[in-house]
Design brief:
The structure holds three protein chains of three kinds.
Chain A lengths: L31 H20 E9 L11 E4 L2 E11 L6 E8 L11 E5 L2 E3 L2 E3 L2 H5 L2 E5 L9 E3 L13 E8 L10 E4 L2 E11 L6 E8 L11 E4 L4 E5 L2 E5 L3 H6 L2 E4 L15 E5 L2 H4 L8 E6 L12 E4 L2 E9 L2 E3 L4 E3 L1 E6 L19 H6 L2 E7 L7 E7 L9 E2 L4 E3 L5 H18 L2 H27 L5 H23 L4 H29 L3 H4 L4
Helix pairs in contact in A: 7-8
Chain B lengths: L14 E3 L5 E4 L8 E3 L6 E4 L4 H21 L3 E5 L2 E5 L1 H10 L3 H31 L6 H5 L2 H6 L3 H16 L3 E4 L1 H18 L3 H11 L1
Antiparallel strand pairs in B: 1-2, 3-4, 5-6, 5-7
Helix pairs in contact in B: 1-3, 1-7, 2-3
Chain C lengths: L4 E3 L4 E3 L6 E3 L9 E2 L6 E2 L6 H21 L3 E5 L2 E5 L1 H10 L3 H30 L6 H14 L5 H12 L7 E4 L1 H19 L3 H11 L1
Antiparallel strand pairs in C: 2-3, 4-5, 6-7, 6-8
The chains are: A alpha+beta, B alpha+beta, C alpha+beta.
Chain lengths: ~550, ~210, ~210
């Protein structure tokens, strides 16, 4: 069936003209629809463009976990941006991430703003980022409005320890080695965590490790100039009169290392920490109780004879008080002089002398030259006769041979003197020599003769006494005169000025010299036996 | 050639054939908005709409704008335990492609994005010159493809599929419809309307008149 | 005014693209003809309609089995994988109380394709056997198949959306499986089959009888 024809045909009677249905040109109302659509479309495009935040690029070493279009950028766990693309740099050395951020953040995109990827990690006593296992990794942002604006950033590989907005202070500590302390290890005060290790590295000389720690406010105020820091990993066991005392740190710091500090009551007044102060990091709490000095000077000493009993770590003392220690005992063969020398490197802490101010040139100790001039010498002393361990003992020595400080290759060389024990030995040797020189035998012989003469004189005296009563007095006086003579001649014989004694002395001296040269000859021959045949080579 | 005025069946007897039963009849007069049905088999012969060009063009333009919005903006956002996944219309296609289902990805791409886009483009290309009296060539060559393209445009089915999927996911997570979804939802009736108001015969006649 | 119904016979042909009814001159009846308006090739009947339709239907039937046997998607949640075929998806929806959705999916993904396959096959058979049984009903059947056919794409779109939305790493992710491919193939093949079927053939046997 077709539709009925419904076209209107005017059924008019009469002369009314047929109206022609005109095609009315009208704008159909249907055009409202596209108009509306266009308005909405434009509005959307505009607002999307307005909402478009800044686009930035961040470079990372690895793109692990970063997904284009999905990975978010967050600050304080609030989403502030989205990663648009993740691709390799042209030279394949790193990954370039392009991200767009929400509007209004342009002012926080400065050169100091930091970006890092948050992934699940176990580190430094914390397990962080576990939520990323479920929700995917994200890029964390630490915005900063200092510095100039930037759009290109280099991402950090690890989260920064210190957020720009966290108040606190960084301190520097120096230690021989790091032990189990690592970046992120906690810092404790009275076993409350108040900060963490921010960075660790070598100092300029490479001989020590410098650790930078961050302590949160307000605990950073507790650090004064006399504060002691120590490595709190592992436990401290001290043996005291009461028994063994064990100080255990928290399990965390035992596992991941930790640093603790306290400000002990000391003689020095605690001051505010100066800007560049570097604290000492003691290996354990025990060590902090010993006075430690920052300033160390090094010197070299040469000793005659054997240095057996002296080793690295041996004490260097002054009148029994430790002022330093031996760093090294070297054996050096000088091919030019064909001789051995034993330079000993010692380290002294001049602060122990009370010299508080560290001069510019650490080795130029003021007054040291004067002291040396006054007889300040180093000697080897035996600290324990039982073990034979030696110490180096400095003291002012009377009648010391004149000496001075000379500059060695690396450190100044201080003059030395023979050690105390040697002095005794020497003195004994001298006495023995002196005793040796006394002509005891001849004196004995002389004495014998004198005594014989004396007994003869006494015999005569007896005879005289037997035939006494006749010429006693003249005989007695004559006997006495003879006795006087005998004694006088004995006296002159014994007296060192007597020619006989002097002769004898000379004789003995000559004998000693002869013995000496024979001895040195014997020594020489021992070393160079061929000289017997060839004669002296020099 | 001047445009035809209102159709006068008495002057020209045109024949109209039924696509389904091959019956040929004289073209009846049909008022605006009406349609002619085949007497034999009941199939639709044609729809009459005198303002077809205007209406269809207007709707096609709206449809085009909506289509752009629907494809540019996020479609759905899926939130579960803080994880948000946003998708656009093409996300589905790329996800399927990424899983190795190339054929299915292609099928979805054609039926939900390509065919509707071609349809809209075709209508605009053909109708705009007629309406605004522009010079244009190729309208005839292009317009004949409309039927085929229409067969492959399945956006309305897609919408139902979305709803089913949403309900399936609703107890698992939060689904947040995005702007594109609304645009899509509007696009479907508008495109359908454009086709309803399309009087192909009149358009052909216009095309013939121009070329 | 009623229009006279002229059977097409051999004198007229209608362009399938632009609906123009044309007369075919005697001498040109066996040659390849083009539409005078739009230039597309004119066929009185779709060439090889029945064989093409049957071939496509056969292919569709072959794909139908794996489409339902293989899972169409796998949901992986915390390592647990759950594969769903179309049917198990319906059951899942039903069991979870979402029975309207279950119904929609059931109709769209199971009833409709089956109906298409059976319906088109029946139509083809009816034509082969030159049946005259209720042509209008058959025509309506064909129209229904053509209109409703596209709705079986719903499940494919559901999978698409789920795949696009649910990619939350280990919490949940969805992957399309081979079932989706085969099901898409079924939809496409039945669509093509319906397109290649020429409904005018239904009326041919009627006309032959009339004459």
């Amino acid at each position: 069936m077709s539709e009925e024809n419904e076209m209107a045909e005017p059924r008019g009677e009469g002369a009314a003209p047929r109206a022609v249905v005109l095609d009315r040109a009208r704008i159909s109302v249907v055009w409202l629809i596209p108009l509306l659509a266009a308005v909405v479309g434009i509005y959307l495009a505009y607002s999307a463009w307005m909402e478009q935040g800044p686009t930035i690029t961040i470079t990372f070493e690895s793109g692990e976990g970063l997904v284009a279009g999905k990975t978010k950028l967050k600050h304080k766990k609030v989403e502030i941006g989205l990663v648009e693309s993740v691709r390799l740099a042209d030279d394949l050395s790193h990954v370039v991430v392009t991200a767009t951020l929400a509007t209004g953040l342009s002012q926080y995109l400065t050169e100091k703003t930091r970006f890092w990827v948050v992934r699940a990690q176990v580190s430094a006593g914390q397990i962080t980022g576990l939520d990323t296992v479920l929700s995917g990794v994200y890029i964390a942002v630490d915005p900063s409005d200092e510095g100039s604006r930037a759009r290109r950033f280099v991402g950090l590989e690890k989260a920064p320890i210190i957020m720009s907005d966290k108040p606190g202070t960084i301190f520097s500590l120096r230690a021989k080695d790091l032990g189990s302390v690592d970046v992120g290890s906690p810092v404790y005060y009275r076993w409350l965590r108040v900060g963490q290790v921010a960075a660790a590295g070598f100092d300029e000389s490479g001989d020590a490790v410098v650790v930078q720690i961050f302590i949160e406010a307000p605990h950073d105020q507790r650090v004064r100039s006399t504060t002691r820091f120590w490595n709190a990993s592992g436990f401290d066991a001290t043996v005291t009169a009461d028994g063994i005392q064990i100080d255990t740190p928290s399990l965390v710091s035992m596992l991941v290392g930790g640093i603790a500090f306290e400000t002990p009551a000391t003689m020095t007044v605690a001051r505010d920490v100066p800007i560049d102060m570097i604290f000492e990091l003691y290996p354990n709490k025990q060590a902090t109780r010993q006075p430690r000095y920052r300033w160390k000077s090094r010197f070299i000493l040469y000793f005659e004879g054997s240095v057996a009993g002296l080793s690295r770590g041996s004490s260097v003392e002054f009148r029994g008080i430790k002022i330093g220690e031996v760093l090294a005992v070297h054996l050096v063969f000088d091919s030019k002089t064909n001789d051995f020398s034993i330079p000993i490197v010692i380290e002294i802490e001049p602060e122990r002398f009370g010299l508080v101010d560290e001069p510019e040139d650490r080795d130029a100790l003021p007054g040291l030259h004067d002291m040396v001039a006054r007889g300040f010498r180093a000697r080897l002393s035996t600290s324990s006769l039982l073990t034979g361990k030696k110490v180096i003992d400095f003291d002012f020595i009377m009648d010391a041979e004149p000496g001075e400080i000379r500059m060695g290759e690396r450190y100044p060389v201080l003059p030395t003197a023979a050690g105390g024990f040697d002095a005794i030995t020497n003195r004994i040797t001298r006495i023995v020599e002196k005793v040796d020189r006394i002509p005891i035998e001849s004196i004995g012989q002389n004495l014998e003769e004198v005594l014989i003469g004396l007994s003869g004189t006494l015999g005569e005296f007896e005879a005289l006494a037997g035939s006494a009563n006749e010429n006693l007095v003249p005989r007695l006086s004559a006997a006495l005169a003879k006795l006087e003579d005998t004694l006088g001649s004995a006296d002159s014989m014994i007296s060192p000025e007597s020619p006989m004694a002097q002769d004898l002395e000379r004789l003995l001296r000559d004998l000693a010299k002869a013995a000496e040269s024979i001895r040195s000859l014997a020594e020489r021959l021992e070393e160079h036996p061929e000289e017997l045949l060839r004669g002296k080579s020099k | 050639m001047p445009r035809d005025g209102p159709f006068e069946p008495r002057i020209q007897v045109r024949l109209v054939g039924c696509h389904e039963c091959d019956a040929v009849v004289e073209e009846p007069f049909v008022p605006d908005g009406g349609s002619a049905i085949c007497g034999r088999c009941g199939g639709t012969l044609f729809r009459r709409q005198r303002q077809t060009v205007e209406i269809t063009l207007a709707l096609s333009i709206s449809g085009a704008i909506l289509f752009v919005v629907a494809n540019v903006y996020p479609f759905l956002a899926f939130e579960l335990q803080g994880q948000v996944a946003q998708t656009t219309l093409r996300s589905g296609v790329s996800a399927l492609w990424g899983q190795g289902q190339y054929a299915v990805a292609g099928l979805v791409l054609v039926t939900t994005i390509l065919a509707p886009a071609c349809q809209l483009a075709l209508l605009l290309f053909v109708l705009a010159p007629i309406q605004f009296k522009w010079r244009s060539r190729g309208g005839i060559r292009v317009f004949r493809w409309l039927g085929r393209i229409r067969a492959w445009s399945m956006m309305e089915v897609f919408l139902i599929g979305i709803l089913v999927a949403l309900v399936k996911l609703s107890d698992m997570a939060d689904i947040v419809p995005g702007l594109a979804l609304w645009a899509f939802a509007l696009l479907i009736p508008i495109l359908a309307g454009a086709l309803v108001f399309l009087d192909a015969e009149l358009v052909w006649r216009e095309l013939e008149a121009v070329e | 005014m009623t229009a006279s119904v002229l059977p097409a016979g051999m004198a007229h042909a209608q362009c399938h693209a632009c609906s123009l009814v044309m007369t075919i001159p005697e001498e040109a009846r066996e040659s390849r003809l083009g539409c005078s308006r739009c230039g597309t090739v004119v066929h009185r009947r779709k060439p090889n309609s029945l064989s093409r339709t049957m071939a496509l239907l056969l292919a569709a039937v072959i794909c139908y089995v794996p489409a339902n046997v293989y899972p169409i998607m796998a949901i992986t949640s915390f390592g647990k994988v759950q594969s769903d075929t179309i049917f198990s998806g319906v059951i899942y929806l039903f069991v979870h109380g979402m029975w309207p959705l279950a119904l929609i999916v059931f109709v769209a993904s199971i009833i409709v394709p089956t109906m298409k396959l059976i319906g088109l096959t029946a139509l083809v058979i009816s034509i082969r056997r030159r049946s005259q049984w209720r042509p209008q009903e058959r025509a309506r059947l064909y129209r229904t198949i053509e209109t409703v056919g596209r709705w079986s794409m719903v499940d494919v779109y559901v999978v698409t959306i789920l795949v696009a939305l649910v990619h939350l790493g280990s919490i949940a992710s969805v992957e399309a499986q081979t079932g989706a491919f085969f099901f898409g193939a079924v939809v496409v093949l039945t669509l093509l089959a319906a397109q290649s079927f020429d409904p005018r053939l239904i009326w041919d046997s009627i006309e032959d009888n009339d004459e």
